[in-house]
Design a protein that fits this description.
Oligomer: single chain
Number of strands: 10
Distance between the termini: 76 Å
Strand content: 5-15%
Length: about 475
C-alpha cells in the first residue's frame, strides 16, 4: 500500500569545498606536494611563484546576457554558486573528486630486481616442457612478498582450467612447485613456516646438528614454536647443551625468504618526511612547517587579465564568449580557493602543533620519554579551539623532527595513569619501565605479566594485569613463555 508522508529532517551536508579542505588537512607533506603538482597540471589559472597582491574576487559582478530575446533580456550574475554547488557540480570538479577519492597518483621510484623477476629468470634457465613453464609462471605469480605460496594447489588447478584453459591436476602442480622450491633464495615457494625451514635445512651440510634440527622441525614443530624445550629434550633424549646448539642452527634460518627482494620497495615507500620541525636551543623552542619541496602558488596574471578583458567587452558578447567567460571564471575561482585552502591548512597545522609543544614542552627540550604528560585529542582541541575530529586529522600520518629524532604526532598522545599518591603520569612512562625490566630479565626465567604487575605496584604504579598485557603487546613483546631461551 502506497501512501504519502511529510517528514522534517535536519541534516549536516558538507559542500565540495569543505570536503576538499578536509582531504588537504589529512595529507602529509609528501602527498601534499603531489596534490599541488596535480592541481597545477589541471588548472592553468594556477601557477608556481611567490604570492603577490594579485587575487581573484569570485563575487565580482559579471553580467552575461543569456537570451537575445528583448522581452526576456535578463542579466545573470555568474557567482560561484552558479556552477559549484551540491546539486550542480561542473564536470571537471566531479572528475577531480572521483579520481582523488578512488586512486592516488603513483610516485615513481628506482628499485632493483623484484622477487618475481628473479624467480622468472631462474625459470628461464630450466629446460621444461611448455605446460610446466606455464604452471610455474602462475605459481610464481602467486608467491607473496614473504616468499610463501599461500594458495591451495586445488585452487591453482581451478584457476589454470578456467582462466588459462589448461587442464592440470594437483600432482602436476606439486611436481612443478618442487622445482621452484629448488630456486634461490632457499625456502622460496614454501606453503608454511615448517616447510620453509625444512627446505633450508635440506640445503645445508648434513652435520649431526642439522640432522637433529630437521628431526625437531618434522616431529616437534609445535613444541619448538611454543618453546617447550623440556619436552623436546625428553623426547629426543639429548642434553641441554646439545639442544642449544641445534636450536641455534634453526633460529639462524630465514623465516621470510622473500624479504630481501622487497626491502628496496618497502624502504622507498616507507620513507618518512617530517611535516614539522621543532628545534630546541638554549631553552627555547622554534616551530616551523616543513615546506621545503612545496611550491608557493599564485593566480595566473594572464588568466586574470583575460577574464577582465572578456568581462569588459559586453558589446560583442556571444553565447561562445559567455561560455569562455564562465570557463575562465571557474578556473580562477578554483585556483583562488585552492590557494586559500593551502593557507588555511598551514594555519591549522601550525596552531595544532604549537598546542602540542605547549603541552609537551619538557619532552621537546630534553627528549626524555618519562617527561611526556598524559594528553588526549580533547586537550589539544580545547587549546586550539578546533573540533576533536580536526585534531585527529592533523595528527594522522604526520611526523615531527626534533633534536632527538623523528616522531609521529600520535606518539605524543597517551592516556593517563595514577601513582599510589594520586599523581597523573603518561602511559609512556609505564611502558618504558616495563621495557627496561624485560630487557634486564633472566632469559631462562622471563617475567610474566603478573610479575611485571607486582614490580610496577612496588614502584608506586597502580595498574591491572590486563593493562600490563596490553602495554606489552603495544611494545611488540611476546609473552614470557615465548621469550624464554635455553
Amino acid at each position: 500500500m502506497l501512501k504519502q508522508q511529510l517528514q522534517q529532517k535536519l541534516q549536516i551536508k558538507l559542500s565540495p569545498q569543505q570536503l576538499q579542505l578536509i582531504r588537504l588537512l589529512e595529507l602529509p607533506s609528501i602527498e601534499l606536494e603531489e596534490r599541488i603538482k596535480h592541481e597545477l597540471e589541471d588548472n592553468p589559472a594556477l601557477e608556481e611563484g611567490s604570492s603577490s597582491a594579485e587575487t581573484f574576487d569570485s563575487d565580482a559582478e559579471e553580467n552575461i546576457n543569456e537570451n537575445s530575446n528583448p522581452s526576456e533580456n535578463a542579466d545573470t550574475d555568474l557567482s560561484l554558486g552558479d556552477y559549484l554547488n551540491e546539486d550542480d557540480i561542473p564536470d571537471y570538479k566531479l572528475r577531480e573528486m572521483d579520481e582523488r577519492a578512488e586512486q592516488k597518483e603513483e610516485i615513481p621510484f628506482a628499485a632493483g630486481e623484484s622477487l618475481n623477476e628473479h624467480l622468472l629468470q631462474q625459470l628461464g634457465l630450466r629446460d621444461l616442457p611448455e605446460k610446466e613453464v606455464n604452471i610455474a609462471k602462475y605459481i610464481i605469480g602467486n608467491i607473496d612478498d614473504d616468499g610463501y605460496l599461500r594458495r591451495d594447489l586445488s585452487a591453482i588447478a581451478d584457476d589454470l582450467i578456467f582462466l588459462a584453459g589448461q587442464e592440470v591436476n594437483e600432482t602436476e602442480i606439486e611436481r612443478v612447485l618442487k622445482i621452484i622450491q629448488d630456486f634461490e633464495p632457499a625456502g622460496i615457494g614454501a606453503r608454511n613456516l615448517q616447510e620453509c625451514l625444512l627446505i633450508q635445512l635440506e640445503r645445508k651440510e648434513q652435520t649431526p646438528e642439522i640432522v637433529m634440527a630437521t628431526n625437531i622441525i618434522k616431529n616437534y614443530f609445535d613444541e619448538f614454536t611454543r618453546k617447550h624445550y623440556e619436552k623436546i629434550s625428553r623426547g629426543l633424549q639429548i642434553e641441554e647443551k646439545q639442544l642449544k646448539a641445534v636450536i641455534h642452527e634453526i633460529t639462524a634460518l630465514n623465516p621470510k625468504p622473500g624479504n630481501g627482494w622487497s626491502s628496496t620497495l618497502v624502504s622507498t615507500m616507507t620513507q618518512v618526511v617530517p611535516d614539522f620541525i621543532v628545534e630546541a636551543n638554549n631553552g627555547e623552542l622554534t616551530l616551523s612547517i616543513n615546506s621545503r619541496d612545496i611550491p608557493e602558488l599564485r593566480i595566473s596574471k594572464e588568466y586574470s587579465n583575460m577574464f577582465k578583458d572578456y568581462s569588459a567587452n559586453k558589446a560583442n558578447r556571444t553565447p561562445e564568449m559567455r561560455d569562455a567567460i564562465q570557463f575562465v571564471k571557474q578556473k580562477l575561482d578554483s585556483a583562488q580557493w585552492f590557494i586559500d585552502a593551502i593557507k588555511q591548512r598551514n594555519e591549522t597545522l601550525q596552531r595544532t602543533m604549537a598546542a602540542i609543544i605547549e603541552l609537551q614542552r619538557e619532552f621537546f627540550l630534553t627528549g626524555d620519554e618519562s617527561s611526556l604528560k598524559p594528553m588526549i585529542l580533547k586537550d589539544v582541541a580545547e587549546k586550539t579551539g578546533y573540533d576533536i575530529s580536526t585534531i585527529s586529522r592533523v595528527s594522522n600520518s604526520k611526523y615531527v623532527q626534533t633534536n632527538y629524532g623523528i616522531y609521529p604526532l600520535k606518539y605524543f598522545f597517551s592516556e593517563s595513569m595514577q601513582t599510589h599518591t594520586g599523581e597523573e603520569i603518561s602511559a609512556h612512562e609505564i611502558r618504558k619501565i616495563m621495557k627496561e625490566h624485560i630487557e634486564a630479565e633472566d632469559k631462562h626465567k622471563p617475567l610474566t605479566d603478573e610479575e611485571l604487575t607486582s614490580i610496577l605496584k612496588e614502584n608506586g604504579y597502580v595498574i591491572a594485569r590486563r593493562t600490563v598485557a596490553k602495554y606489552r603487546e603495544q611494545l611488540g613483546i611476546p609473552i614470557a613463555r615465548l621469550r624464554k631461551s635455553i
